[in-house]
Design goal:
Shape: globular
Distance between the termini: 18 Å
Radius of gyration: 17 Å
Order of helices and strands: EHEHEHEHEHEEEEEHEE
Number of helices: 6
Length: about 220
């Protein structure tokens, strides 16, 4: 794990990159890194997340700045701007059932090709997907999801990069940390090694590539 400034962290992300971003309606989203993406005007991003939050919050800031080319999400959040851009054909939005979305990310992080799920069978969700029968029941093959970068928010990080999360802010963060080529973490508090008890570590240091220094 390497410590970097906020500017250095986001400078590593090129235009057109695929980026997983933690959070649920902005809770648990690495806001400082999102703000820096807006400042650096990183364009054409494919964002994989639970939702697009709302204007002025979390991923909603990227939508407002027109930096998102495609969003793979379970819902658009409370974000009329995402809806407007989607209907106007200015932004591609792939809606994935929430359980399916996190399972696809989990599969990507654990080296699996995908998962079988009955969710969506017989609906528009199955369009273009392989259907597999197991013991007489139909399932859809949902392929694994990975990204170039994962932007993770933690409550605690130690000097090695071990991460611990606070309550519901944990949400997607641990899963996306497993499913990206490069993991950049932002923490509310950076503490000496040993402050985080071993059994409280959720994302271990070897998974984290970069830790953003506190501003």
């Amino acid at each position: 794990m390497q410590g970097v400034s906020l500017e250095q962290a986001d400078a590593m992300i090129p235009d057109g990159a695929s980026v997983m971003i933690g959070g649920f309606m902005g809770v648990g989203t690495p806001e400082r890194m999102v703000d820096e993406l807006v400042r650096q005007e990183k364009r054409g991003l494919t964002v994989i997340a639970n939702d697009t939050a709302m204007p002025g919050v979390g991923i909603g800031k990227l939508v407002t700045a027109r930096l998102v080319a495609k969003a793979i999400v379970s819902h658009i959040g409370l974000n009329p701007e995402t809806q407007q851009r989607m209907l106007a054909g200015e932004m591609d939005v792939e809606l994935v059932p929430q359980g399916t979305l996190i399972e696809r990310i989990r599969a990507g992080g654990h080296g699996l090709g995908g998962v079988l799920t009955p969710t969506g069978v017989g609906t528009v969700v199955e369009k273009g997907k392989q259907k597999i029968a197991v013991n007489g029941k139909d399932y859809l093959l949902e392929t694994a999801l990975r990204a170039d970068f994962a932007l993770v928010n933690a409550f605690l990080a130690d000097y090695l990069g071990n991460l611990a999360y606070a309550l519901t802010a944990r949400n997607f963060n641990p899963m996306i940390a497993m499913a990206a080529d490069t993991v950049i973490a932002e923490a509310d508090n950076i503490v000496p090694v040993g402050v985080i008890a071993p059994d409280h570590v959720v994302t271990p240091a070897p998974i984290v590539d970069y830790l953003v220094a506190q501003g």
